Amino acid sequence: MRTIIEPFRIKSVEPIRMTTVDERRGLLKAAAWNLFGIASDDVMIDLLTDSGTSAMSAAQWGAVMRGDESYAGSPSFYRFERAVKNLMPFKHVIPTHQGRAAEAILFSIVGGAGHVIPSNTHFDTTRGNIEASGATAVDLVIAEAHDHQSLHPFKGNIDLARLAALLERSSAQIPLVMMTVTNNAGGGQPVSLANLRAAADLAHSYGKPFFIDGCRFAENAWFIKCREAGQDGRAVTDIVRDMFALADGMTMSAKKDAFANIGGWLAVNDDTLAAAARNRLILTEGFPTYGGLAGRDLDAIAVGLEEIVDEQYLRYRVRTNEYIGDKLLALGVPIVQPVGGHAVFVDARRLLPHIPPLQYPGQALAVSLYELGGIRSCEIGTVMFGQQPDGTERAAEMDLVRLAMPRRVYTQSHADYVVEVFEEIVASRAQTRGLRIVSQPPRLRHFTARFERLD
Ligand code: F0G
Questions:
Q1: Structural domain includes residue 240
Q2: Do 115 and 170 contact (CB within 8 A), yes or no?
Q3: Residue of 61, 166, 181, 272 with fewest CB within 10 Å of its CB?
């Protein structure tokens, strides 16, 4: 059959509150054209993030009821630990309340002034935690990642030549080599098993541990199965195990590929590093058998990890975004290709060429998507990255808008609706106006900046 159906039925639903264009214009004005200021009840289709927004399964809700809230040694922890080790055979698994908490603990130990941490592309919280420790985060993704039209199957790959050169030049400053799978900041693009293996080998040849930010590991493994030579006949679980067998540790946000609404972990093989991490954990998160989570959250993650590697699910998951991507391309909407695992990234600068970067074409598109269709998306461009430490601003490398798809939440008619809203945006694009910032905080301005629409 050609139609890839949602591999689940729905037995518990949440109503969507329908709003009108006029109502949304008023709400936009009240929120100063910043979509982070809109109440989610006023959003019809929320594509702000795929993080923590998954629909949990009946089995996960059942597991929540089994959750044991003992402070120490809860059976929920042992179920969680078993589920993680089944896929990622690390010696020590340390739960945290979400991904960035695992990053904060890791870099409080291995970061620090003078250190350099290479990756394909660090996610912004990873970069933030590295920089907060005084260390430097370096992104070494392959050149094809910057070309939106390049159909390279693994645009998340690290540039091995540049990694080798950095290791040769600065080995003494590098505490570990990291890779993000899939590469969120680069458009949800996957990393090949061959590239992971080569990067791990390089790191190890300099005596450096190799770490994986595994937030979207199952989507990455599915792309390996579909795109990498010699991998198509293999089970996704085997590919996942191969990926993590290369690594000495990982950070994880269970809010992505574990179908949980909260949670994460740090896993390592090294006993000394694990002991230091647990000491830090007790200070900042909690006892090592719950790490900032309730026992019920650990059980939800344990079941989520079994469900996320289901190949029927992964086929449907990746197809959902491709489906929207194909239809947007047919409308002439420029997007980052190939479509990534968790989101479609629209190139707003090319879609709205009459709006210069410093009038924020990405924000203008995100505002229009909400105004015309009640869809919330996220600008990833000059609003997010243009602000400089000295208070000036400059155009970001790209002005993108991310349509991130929550897992198991929206159906095909929701996707068709998103496409239809884009049809209207394309038809009226010449009238779309840019914005100016009327007030902003000194850092991370995208969350709270206030805008005005230009006439
Ligand atoms: N690493 C990657 C690749 C991520 O995408 C995220 C979160 C994190 C780490 C941090 O995890 O949120 O649990 O603390 N990404 C979300 C997003 C916020 O919308 O892409 P966290």
A1: yes
A2: no
A3: 272
Provide the whole-model pTM. Answer: 0.96
Based on the domain organization, do 398 and 349 belong to the same domain? yes
Instruction: Write out pLDDT tens, residues 116-156.
Output: 999 999 998 999 999 999 999 999 999 999 998 899 999 99
Q: Convert 190-205 to b/e letters by CB count within 10 Å (16 or more is b).
A: bbbbbbbebbbebbee
Q: Considering its fold, how many domains does the chain have in total?
A: 2
- Domain residue limits at 83: 58-307
Nearest CA residue ID for atom 2, ligand 1:
123
Tell me which of 307, 337, 354 is where a domain ends: 307
Of the chain, the end-to-end C-alpha distance in Å amounts to 50
Which residues, in sequence order, are CB contacts of 133 under 8 Å at separation 6+?
A: 107, 108, 111, 112, 115
Which pLDDT tens digit goes with each residue over 355-375? Answer: 999 999 999 999 999 999 999
Residues 7, 318 contacting (CB under 8 angstroms): no
CA–centroid distance, residue 37 to ligand 1 (Å): 20
- Give the number of the atom of ligand 1 that is nearest the alpha carbon of residue 183: 3
